[in-house]
Design brief:
With 479 residues, the chain is an alpha/beta fold. The protein is built from twelve helices and 22 strands. Helix 3 runs antiparallel to helix 4. The protein starts with a strand and ends in a 13-residue tail after the last helix. It holds the Pfam family Pyr_redox_2.
């Protein structure tokens, strides 16, 4: 039968398309189902990440950072510019071009690896039958030996500020502003809120971030979170208000009035644009028939075991739709693991070594446990840090904010976590991931030779500082 497959993947985001490619490479007859359509009403692959998430947001972050540097720090390098201006439409066009290149590339990879593509909404039915409904309502049935659910996530909406797609927008709408808002409100000081707020702040917006939590970046190591909060507010001018709970909003003409409460009582602010980014939730609408035997947990995620197998035999789920951090690279690795398992190979994933990154400037990145977590778990530990202010390469780059921090087990010396706040933190953290995957000790990093001058030397020095052996900063007094 033409529509019989070894594997059918629903969703072509970083989890789904990677799973499909890997399955095909392992010799499995594979199909992928995707409903996403672009502005030209053409089917596109890549999911949220490539179309309206990771990639376009990083494109705008990079453009806005170039403008910010030209406006504020080029003079420190002896470079003078005049008549500097922002062309937002050109920035958006560049962003859209990058998205088109990558989504077209994914389509080429799927085709090149022999994956059969179906355009439409996929629904898992009993017996591992997948129904694909195209844009015209035509239904095609696929018989699968194995199904991989990779339907991703969507932004969470909150009743006080319903989005209208124009003045009040979600993270997707925030990537489409055609001009710089004079006054911008952001609800949520998480990864998305900080990144999007940074983009428009650099381009000239007055940005106020309203965060309901009383702590800043609670998931991050608090030593770095405190340093980041100071950098974002005092150095960059982001107005981040913690403990600010939004209670309502009202669109008045071309502006929006936002009401909120904080420790001082009820308050309100008026904005030209408002971005709502309070998190994301798994997208399962229309994905599962009642008799498919796949169960959801109490938070709406598809329930899976350690190998991403659902409660239905032969049906797996990966990426944002299952437990764990909603990260593209986490979903991709799950996709590879599941494809390997379906092909009969032994495979597992180390969830303790997944890096997290916030692409602000400076960037924040970490892998493993925070100091707060090891304390809470009662683990005897030692920690060392090294500031970029003592790095010759950071000085040359005119960007000395931040540090590298390493946490190790006091008894075994095994590295438990690495945390980076500073220039290129997203790249530097990979050294911590590699070290943890290989079970490295702090001493292992101490004995390695790092190139000079580099930012990565801060990793070497932080490892040395774990045992009070740092060379280029004065070590703390031994306890």
């Amino acid at each position: 039968m033409a529509n019989q497959f070894d594997v059918v993947v629903i969703g072509s985001g970083p989890a789904g398309y990677v799973a499909a490619i890997k399955a095909a490479q392992l010799g499995l007859n594979t199909a992928i189902v995707e409903k996403w359509r672009n502005k030209e009403d053409k089917a596109v692959y890549g999911g949220t990440c490539l179309n309206v998430g990771c990639i376009p947001s990083k494109a705008l972050l990079q453009s806005s950072e170039h403008y910010h540097q030209a406006d504020s720090s080029f003079k420190d390098h002896g470079i003078s510019l005049s008549n500097l201006k922002v062309d937002v439409k050109a920035m958006l066009a560049r962003k859209d071009g990058i998205v088109k290149n990558l989504t077209t590339g994914v389509a080429g990879l799927l085709k090149g690896n022999g994956v059969t593509s179906f355009e439409g909404s996929g629904k898992l039915c009993a017996g591992k039958v997948v129904e694909v409904t195209d844009k015209d309502g035509k239904v095609t049935k696929l018989d699968a030996k194995n199904v991989i659910l990779a339907s991703g996530s969507i932004p969470v909406e909150i009743p006080p500020t319903p989005t209208d797609g124009n003045i009040i927008v979600d993270s997707t709408g925030a990537l489409e502003f055609t001009e710089v808002p004079k006054r911008l409100g952001v609800i949520g000081a998480g990864v998305i809120g900080l990144e999007l707020g940074s983009v428009w702040k650099r381009l000239g917006s007055e940005v106020i971030v309203l965060e309901a939590q009383d702590s800043f970046l609670a998931a991050a190591d608090q030593a770095l979170a405190k340093a980041a909060f100071k950098s974002f507010t005092k150095d960059q001018g982001l107005d981040i208000r913690l403990g600010a709970r939004v209670t309502g909003s009202e669109i008045k003409g071309k502006k929006v009035l936002v009401k909120f409460t904080d420790s001082e009582g009820e308050k309100e602010e008026t904005f030209d644009k408002l971005i709502v980014c309070v998190g994301r939730r798994p997208f399962t609408q229309g994905l599962l028939s009642e008799d498919c035997d796949v169960k959801l947990d109490e938070r709406g995620f598809i329930f899976v075991d350690d190998n991403c197998l659902t409660t239905a035999p032969g049906v797996y789920a990966i990426g944002d739709v299952v437990r764990g951090p909603m990260l593209a690279h986490k979903g991709s690795e799950e996709g590879i693991m599941v494809a390997e398992i379906i092909a009969g190979h032994k495979a597992q994933m180390n969830y303790d070594a997944i890096p997290n990154v916030i692409y602000t400037n400076p960037e924040l990145a970490w892998v493993g446990k925070t100091e707060e977590e090891v304390k809470a778990e009662g683990i005897k530990y030692k920690a060392g840090s090294f500031p970029f202010a003592a790095s010759g390469r950071a000085m040359a780059a005119n960007d000395t904010t931040g540090m590298v921090k390493i946490i190790a087990d006091e008894e075994t010396d095994r590295i438990l976590g690495m945390h980076v706040f500073g220039l290129h933190a997203s790249e530097i953290v990979a050294q911590g991931v590699i070290a943890m995957e290989f079970g490295s000790s702090a001493e292992d990093l101490q004995l390695m030779c790092f190139a000079h001058p580099t930012l990565s030397e801060a990793v070497h020095e932080a490892a040395l500082a774990v045992d009070n052996k740092a060379i280029h900063v004065v070590n703390r007094k031994k306890r």
